[in-house]
Amino acid sequence: MTRLAAPTTTNTPPATRRWWALAVIALTQLVVVLDGTIVNIALPQAQQELGMSDAQRGWVVTAYALVFGALLLLGGRIADFWGRKRAFMLGMVGFGLASLYGGLAQSGSDLIIARGLQGLFAALLAPAALALLTVTFPSGRERNTAFAVYGAVAGSGAAVGLLLGGFLTEFTSWRWCLLVNLVFVAIGVAIGAVVLGESRAQGRPKFDMWGAVTVTLGFGFLVYGLTLAEGGWLRVDTIGFIAAGVLLLAAFVWIEARVAEPLLPLRILRNRVRAGAFIVQATLGALLIGSTMYLAFHLQLVLGLAPLVAGLATVVMTAATLVVVPLFTRLLPVWGPRAMLIAGPLAAACGMFWLSGVTADGSYALQVLPGLLLVGAGVGITFVPLQNLALVGIAPADAGAASAAVNASMQLGGSIGLSVFALAATGGATRAAAAGAAPAEVLAESYGAVFLAAAIVLLIGAAVAAVCVRGTKEELLPSHG
């Protein structure tokens, strides 16, 4: 039988320090989200300097998202029992060291390993930060405001990463896309040591190592199998890795239902509303992590924009997110979370459908800009209630595990999205080449296929929200008051 959640001990910062704590936590979220995309603009330059193959280039992005997502559940449980502030501080320092290693990389393998190490420490850092936010703002209007700020940062971080990556690549070197993290880490450690309060679950934990092994290998095999599918779905290695991944994930669920202290208590997922929120989060991860890499490629390789200009070209997406967040935060008591979790992905899907029409001779103003505005607005609308809804009603002792599940949904959605979108890109390029298209048009067709696939994923997210997120506004967000 599964034991009830252990009680939690909390040392919450005084009211005067809560907003400083929010600033540090939001900075942390910005770092882990923007690092999913900051290297995207720099990849063409890094690939040339380090002599990477196209496959290695893709793994620079996938390694971060995959390791991050696969280890988040373990990181969340460590934070629950070891101490969330302690886990936060160690995660920050480790993330900084991994960034330094990547910034000094001398080969493609070095860069991929560094990105994996970034993901490892982010898996400790991110759930600790979100759990700290949960216990620092336990209820009321302050909680809703804090989660809206956190959501805005999460929603805009991918585009901020593209912009910052473009600036650094244009005026310094692609290496500074990793080294700049040292600045964020120094600020986060210095301020976090003062303003963050410690909290942890009581008791003497027994870590669910079999659960950790099965979920990590399960997601790893599944994503790797999907990457192999570019060479054919019927290949023995493709089928083998995908099947092994699915079986290991099934074993993980079986284990979690039987161990005394599970890595992911299944009570977190049994709530239909919360499970729906996790799935919506995964679709946003596919959008923000998976498709933005191809957006960066289109802007540079097809439209011929310089790295900085390509980064600036994505700012409109962030601006749209930042504009809609305060507006829809005020509308949350009126609309309720369900309407926003349906309308947001639908708006973003419309934007991706628009982007799917890109051509080699098309203009940014007509083919890209309108789509980015819709995507940014849709992301902002979705994130206003999403983080809060995914964590509402969670016992304090489960805050780290639930926060890890929220982040894992996004990162694993991103890593699986990268694999699926690579298949879409290959299919689009193959069709265009078979039709005798010019090289630039082949690229545009492949990226258009990715954007179309992303739109379909977002429509699935909207449908899941419509089915799973049900109940009155008071039932869905009881802290609103």
UniProtKB/TrEMBL annotation:
Keyword entries, A-Z: Cell membrane, Membrane, Transmembrane, Transmembrane helix, Transport
Compartment(s): Cell membrane
Membrane-protein topology: Multi-pass membrane protein
Major facilitator superfamily (MFS) profile domain segment(s): 21-473
GO CC terms of this entry: plasma membrane
Gene Ontology molecular function terms on file: transmembrane transporter activity
Gene3D superfamilies tied to this protein: MFS general substrate transporter like domains, Multidrug resistance protein D
Pfam families assigned to the protein according to its UniProt record, in alphabetical order: MFS_1
Transmembrane segments: 20-43, 55-75, 87-104, 116-135, 147-167, 173-197, 209-227, 233-255, 275-297, 303-328, 340-360, 372-395, 416-434, 446-469
PANTHER family: BLR6921 PROTEIN, MAJOR FACILITATOR SUPERFAMILY MULTIDRUG TRANSPORTER MFSC
Protein name: EmrB/QacA subfamily drug resistance transporter
